[in-house]
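Re: flavin-adenine dinucleotide structure - here you go.
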Amino acid sequence: MMQFLPTDEQTAFAEAIDEIVTANGGADVVQAWAAGDKAAGLALWEQFSELGLGGLRVAEEDGGLGASAVDLAIVFERLGYHGVPGPYIESLAFLPAVVSDEVRAEICGGAMATATYAPFVPYALDADVASLRFAVDGSGVTPADAGDAISSMAKTRTLFPLSGSGTTTAVSAEALDRGFAEAALATAAMLVGAGERLLDEAVEYAKIREQFGKPVGEYQALKHHLANVRVALSFARPLMLRAALDIDSPNRDRDVSAAKVSAADAATLAAKLSLQVHGAIGYTAEHHVGRWVTLVPALVQSWGSTSFHRDRVAAAILNQGA
Amino acid sequence: MNLDFTPEQEAFAAEARAWLAENVPTERLASMDTAEGFEQHREWERTLASGNWSVVSWPAEYGGREVGITEWVIFEEEYYRSGAPTRVAQNGISLLAPIVFEHGTPEQKAKYLPLMSNGTEIWAQAWSEPGAGSDLAAIRATATRDDARGGWLLNGQKIWSSRAVWADRGFGLFRSDPEAQRHRGLTYFLFPMDAPGITVRAIEQLDGSTGFAEVFFDDVFVPDEDVLGAPGDGWNVAMSTAGNERGLSLRAPGRFLAPVDRLIDLWDERGESEPSARDAVVDSWIGAEAYKLFTWQTVSRLLQGGDVGAEGSINKVFWSELDIHIHETALRLLGPEAELIGDGAPVGGKWAEDYLFALAGPIYAGTNEIQRNIIAERILGLPRGDRRKA
Ligand SMILES: Cc1cc2nc3c(=O)[nH]c(=O)nc-3n(C[C@H](O)[C@H](O)[C@H](O)COP(=O)(O)OP(=O)(O)OC[C@H]3O[C@@H](n4cnc5c(N)ncnc54)[C@H](O)[C@@H]3O)c2cc1C
């Protein structure tokens, strides 16, 4: 029977992630990583590994959690909400679909892995702290070395060009498409989560910041900005969940792309308006809301831009001129 | 989590589809906001009822099939996909009936529901007044006690009442306690539109049709048996079903999935002349899908015993803006033919007519500004402040 809501177990799993992040300092982890101190973030990775996240999409008989794509989406929504730094999309969503059994087992055991995937992901995220690095393209998966770091406008993201340093293992186009779909879905979920965080931050701030003798949240202009964010995010999430349900269906690419477009647009609105509601304080490096304001545009362009994904939806639904 | 329907639900959808394919008029009916179109639409309501498809979720004794909310949404999708006419009975069926089910006496249910469900009695909603639009609690039309006759006398003016020119009956809130302020002292009345003392004056709409009207009340007698709920409790009665299933006043996703299907056909025909509209077509499709999925989420929550509550405001802002987006996109694709209506227009001017109707979406059923206030205050918890002048 139709039941389009997370199960109690899924909700509990999401709460477990929230608790781990909060117990480790919440936004402080993000701020520290942005400032170059990655210890707390790496400790989080360890704890998530103990929870089994490394094997999220690895079958139980192979030592993984055997979780569904819906579980994946729910997990990444929480990671986005907390802005957790690290190559989670690469390790948990993309690579498991394309690497060898041995590498998958390492990731499942907690190894941090990162990747490039030409042309969508030209630089590997956090290749300095990842123990496994792969250059992936149509010809296959190649172990790789990292070049010089490049900074991102999102201070929690450090990017690296990779150069192949080993033998390329051929991968089927089907496996690559699957890995890309899982990564794009995870990115959409992180965008939904990031959008929710940006909205929460703005709402909390609007309740306490006073101007002209009252909380700025009483002003209708701000109320309507934030109501618009609420509407946009509320309609992005069901698309994300349906994309997860359809991960093995012929509609997979269409639905993942629709989810990514909608999540990107909603999170972009959330980022702009949350910053606006914060005023100048939101524009400082010191205030943590900036971590999400800058994370969003980075994720919007990763794992397929909005134009790329709109093109894929067009190709699926239109007969002419798609 | 799943989006799978039971074999029974699939069979229900197939049955509805087959019946609609047989019975939906092949000729487009005249607009229901015209005298001729109103009667054509009433006739269609009779046909629908003859197949027991007019109120699928109602009890059988009132013309329903007693199906659940999932089936209702499934039916609506089939309904609009089939190209069936708009429901002229909708004010009664979706706005009044939920209140009758909850607060009506057994006599009221027996008297009103069967005739409502088969198109014999079409209802008009008479809530708004010249001075009470968004601020509905500013209602000034009065109800005074007539003990001698065992009822009430209604006086005052209502406005913007859709299809009141042709409707058989009306429902509205009147101030029965002149001392009471705002939401208190209002009473919910039901009355025949041809009752002595009622004068209806048609108001021409943007599109030239006389789709709504002013209604003047001059000592209109309403017996006690036509008061819905307790006297003085009208506001609570009117709002009581706002959060539950029947009172969902849900705009079924089929209302948007169907025009998006037609928009995609229009793109396939005419996209070459307006290639830059492609993304807007794609976004219309994404929006309609999002609306459908959001609805299934709501339905899932209702099935688990939850309610809709203020979430309905999120819904309303989204569908009304989506509807405009879909129709604006169609106008882009139609180019210089977009403005045409009637004979000689593409599809008889349906896109243009529906575009104008879509423009009203952010105004009626609580303006989108009011909905955003509700979202901000009741969902996000932002401080209300005091808007009203003391
Ligand atoms: C096609 C159509 C059919 C209708 N059918 C019916 C019907 O059958 N029966 C019936 O009773 N009524 C009907 N209505 C009336 C409808 O319910 C009202 O138009 C609506 O409640 C808004 O009231 P108003 O038009 O007086 O606008 P106003 O309330 O005067 O609003 C004017 C503007 O001010 C804004 N505004 C008002 N208050 C606030 C606030 N607190 N914060 C921010 N902005 C605010 C509004 O959003 C709007 O933009 C219909 C309207 C239309 C367009």
